[in-house]
Amino acid sequence: MTAIIDVKDGVVTGITWDDGCLFCAANDCQPTLYDFEGNLATEEEARQPIGGCGVLTPECAALNENGVGCDLLIYTVWTGTDSQGKDFRSSAYRFSAFPAQSWTDRISQNLPDWVPQSTEEVQDLNPLNQG
To answer: What is the mean pLDDT of residues 111-126?
Structure first.
């Protein structure tokens, strides 16, 4: 979970939650935001993402060896300006600011242009295959 703290001139003006469903499949994303009466909020009411990924208790117990594996993690990022008008920058590094990618996308998008894009472009350097 990531809390986005909105600040104007050093004064906190609001707190919203970032999209908590980035790390699970859409069918595993569950609503996690409640109103002040204890009712599940809708995205329309909250005007922010309301879902998050969870782990069932038996699954957590099986994965939890050191007693902290299923602890709630809350990340905090800041947006807006400090009391001197300087912009906060951490909100640019929240998880939802990065597009979802597969590992192959991450690897291929970070390769330099000179790396061949297909096996047909690769020159066979094996001396036994050279005629």
So the answer is: 58
pLDDT in tens, 29-69: 888 888 778 888 888 887 787 888 877 777 777 776 666 66
Range 62-85 burial, b when 16+ CB lie within 10 A, else e: eeeeeeeeeeeeeeebbbbeeeee
Q: Please report how many Cα atoms fall inside a 13 Å half-sphere around the Cα of residue 106, on the Cβ side.
A: 6
Outline where 6-111 has alpha helix (H). Answer: 43-46, 57-63, 103-109
* The predicted structure's pLDDT at residue 117: 57
How far apart are alpha carbons 57 and 45 in whole angstroms? 29
DSSP-derived 3-state class of residue 105 = helix
Using only C-alpha atoms, the chain has a radius of gyration, in whole angstroms, of 22
User: Does the CA dihedral 112-118-122-128 come out positive or negative?
Assistant: positive
